[in-house]
Amino acid sequence: MQSAFNYLTEEQQKQIEQAVIDAEGKTSCEIVPVLATSSGRYDRPEDIVGLWLTVITALCFWYFFPHAQGQAGDWGGMPVFVELILAALAMVIAFILGAIAGSQIGWLRRLFTPRQQMQDEVAARAREIFFDKRVHHTEGGTGILIYISLFEHIAIALADQAVIDKLGQPFLDQICQKLTSGLQSGEPAETICEVIREIGEQAATPLPRAADDQNELQDVLVLID
C-alpha cells in the first residue's frame, strides 16, 4: 500500500504548496490540502482472506492425503492424531498468512471492503481533520479542506458555511469528482494544483482577499500516514 509520504516527489509537493500561496493571494479563503495513506482500519478483508485460505488448505489436505477407515493414508502409516495436529497447524498458518495478505495487499483490501464503508470512513476522517487542523477556526470562517485518501481512491472537499454560501455545494462536489478522476488517471499533483487554482479564481470575487488579511494556516501539503 502506497504511503502518502512517498506518493509525491518533493518537487510535486512544492508545486502544490505554491498553488496554495497563489490561490490565497486572490481570496480570503484558507486552503488546506491533505494527503492521507488510508482513512480506516478495515479489518474485514483480513478475516475473509484468512478464512478462504484456511478452507483451501483444508480441501488440499482432504484431496491429497485421503484416509480410509481401517487404513493408513498416504502419509505412510502416520498416526491419525499426528495427521490431525499437522492439518490443524497448517490451517492456522494458512489463516495467519491470509490475514497478513488481507492487511498488506491493497487490491485485496479494496476487493473485500464495501465501497460504502470506505466512503463513510473517508468522510468521517475528513471531518476530523477539518477540526483538528483548525480549518474550521479561521477568523472569517472561510476555511477549505481538500482531503485525499490514497487507499480508497476517494477525495473530499469540506468548507465553512460562508464558503458554501458563496461558492455553492455543487462547486465543492465538482472539485471532489475532479480530484477522484485525477487519482485514477495517475496525475494527482497536477489535478490538486488545478483544483486549488480553480478555488482561488472562483472565490476571488465573492470572497476577495482584504488588504490586511492575515495568513492563519500554513501553506503546506499535510501528509498523514
TrEMBL record:
Keyword terms of this UniProt record: Membrane, Transmembrane, Transmembrane helix
Membrane-spanning ranges: 48-65, 85-108
Keyword match Transmembrane helix: yes
Superkingdom: Bacteria
UniProt xrefs under PANTHER family: BLL7265 PROTEIN (PTHR30373:SF8), UPF0603 PROTEIN YGCG (PTHR30373)
Protein name per the record: TPM domain-containing protein
